[in-house]
Amino acid sequence: MVTWHMVRFVLILALMILPALSDVKAQEHKTTDCYCTDRNHNRVELGETICLQVDGRMFMAQCQMSLNVPMWREVQKGCLSSGLSSPDEVFQTATIDAQI
Fold first, then answer.
1. How many of the other CB atoms lie within 10 Å of CB of 9?
2. 50 in Cβ contact with 80 (< 8 Å)
3. pLDDT tens for residues 42-54?
């Protein structure tokens, strides 16, 4: 006789096992890593955010999954910057007082 407790146990067990079975599998049952690539074909992990330039427009984009496909999603207009107006500002040196 099947009881409600047995059915509930099987359902809970199935819900715990299903996420493990949902990984992308290639031949020979190996898990396939999902990731994005930047314009230089460097690997960018899921969840990482970088600055992208597309058709003259710059924006911050995050590597995300959509329908089992890694893709870039815009998360902020414009890109983060250091706030320096020119590269020369990086190399400005202060004068040193030799009498100290």
1. 11
2. no
3. 998 989 999 988 8
Residues written for the chain: 100
87: alpha, beta or left, given left = phi > 0 and alpha = psi -120 to 50?
alpha
Report residue 90: phi and psi, to 5°. Answer: -70, -35
Could you tell me the pTM of the whole model? 0.51
Cβ–Cβ < 8 Å for 60, 49: yes
Residue type, 99: Q
Burial class of residue 61 in the structure, from the number of CB atoms within 10 Å of its CB (0-12 exposed, 13-18 middle, 19+ buried): buried
CA 84 centroid distance within chain: 27
Task: State the CB neighbour count (10 A cutoff) for residue 32.
Answer: 9
